[in-house]
Amino acid sequence: MEIHLSSYGYFRVAVVAPAHRVADVAFNTEQIRRAVHDADGCRFFLFPELCLTAYTCGDLFFQPVLIEAARQAVMELAAFTAEHRVTMVIGAPILQGGRLFNCAVFLSGGRVLGIVPKTYLPNSQEFYEERWFSSARDRTSDTLQWDGEAIPFGTDLLFRAEGLPQCLVGLEICEDVWVASPPSGRMAVAGATVLLNLSASPELLGKKEYRRALVEAQSARCLAAYLYASAGPGESSTDLVFSGHSLIAENGTVLAESERFRFDTQWITADVDIDRLINERLKNNSFGGSSPEADGFRIIDFPLADGTCSVVQRPVPATPFVPPREEERARRCREIFDIQTTGLAKRLQHTGAARAVIGISGGLDSTLALLVMVKAFDKLGLARDGIEAITMPGFGTTDRTRGNAERLAELLGCRLRIIPIDQAVRQHFADIGHDERVHDITYENAQARERTQILMNIANQTGGLLVGTGDLSELALGWCTYNGDHMSMYGVNTGVPKTLVRYLVSWCAEAEFAGEISSILHDVCDTPVSPELLPPHENGEIKQRTEDKIGPYLLHDFFLYHAVRLQYRPSKIFFLARQAFADQFTNGELLSWLQIFYRRFFSQQFKRSCLPDGPKVGSVVLSPRGDWRMPSDACAALWLQDLTQLQEALSEG
Q: The CATH number of the domain where 148 resides is what?
């Protein structure tokens, strides 16, 4: 399935650190041409600061022959953009009004569309730019006369892509981003979604990490993409070494990063998500309320040659809630666990409760909630036997899950109570006239509500706090019984999706507990997800598997993240899911589960509208008091229609 990049809000960019020689303009110009040829499929290129001449020319910048050669090269490359239907931003020394400026030159459609001079000129330690260049503040005109054409000149230029008007490009040069108030901040407030930095940043011990953090932070602060092109080791090594360290970041995340210290041309590419950036800004009223001083920019349109692709050039993790690197995953699990335990500890403190109640089933969610309770009690110095851990075996309970739940409670030092619900539920069936042989929703939910009744009443009986176990994924799909397991006095898992619950329990088995407890936790992770409300197989194994009914949580968590966190439309989510799960699910399977996700997400909002309190853990939360406010009777027709049109397109293809 091929898509047009712009129709899905993507803007493909390349950042290049070309092979170059000091003061050899002809060689450097040819390397720029070759880079454009070699980076097939991209139509927008960013090159480093003073890439036509090299940054380290020193007093050669006073030589008219060098400056004129650079001017001629600019015009040649401008013509080159028309021949090859590309846009490029290059660095060059430019004369204007009797002064020399260190400039970013925007070339597209065969023309020089605009020139942006550098504002902040470093002039300390190894830098002496004020010896050769003037600051943008010293320009004498807002235009530059070249070959009879008045070219826009100044720091008030933004470049808008034709066909993708929300792609607005702003330029700054090297030191501009290192100052307290970078020009790119003002550009972002004026609407720039893609910020470019042409740099020649010498390499020092530890500077790579600092530079990376700076670029990440500026892209996050500006809610923008930030492209950083740095000069490579072809620069003079008289006193300094340059590495060609280039980056593409988007809203605080690095999408691509170059290898350093390579003499040959290096480039990185990525598809910047303009849709996402615009949406982030719409949701952020602090950004919307930023200083109005951003007025007064000149907008210059440039032609954007759109491309098609079947795979976007950006990371599309299959588990967006779970970090891919083990070290980061462990750090994240520690932080989540601390948030959960601290939230519960605060609620226990506030209520003055020294006891708490939980229903445990031997499944992932109740196991995680129990572990959180234990650590919260430890944090407050409360005895663990103040935790009433209650198993309530019913018609679908298996020996495996019951055994794990009961043994875990004992090993953790909790007070274990076993209260079978069979008799009470059968009496209830008799009272309402329900045939026990009919395994319908009444059969299932009667068990869930009986368990909640028991837990609530024991909480009253003991003066304890009933802790809920349901997770974020179940809330998104409404996979909980209204006024059953849907209800508690405080829900510790409401901000944790199912894919992350499993990692948290596994992490606890490795980092927080040992011995038999650890072994039980690993077995819980290996147990199929099930509410255990229907009778098991004859061999005692779990018969009712949640994911057989509603689909894999792996997919639903992926859908949830992109639908709620990023607000993508269904067809875009499907396109990304194809990339993330190409070797696991067919197009038909992805489309089917995505339709189920939207149907359930809309129809089950009424359950989320009356959730108990619980801590926010990540950037996706469905609390009606927090990040998510949705009418319980909203219609899903528009979203399902998008999927229907997609299904028709796939059938025709």
A: 3.60.110.10
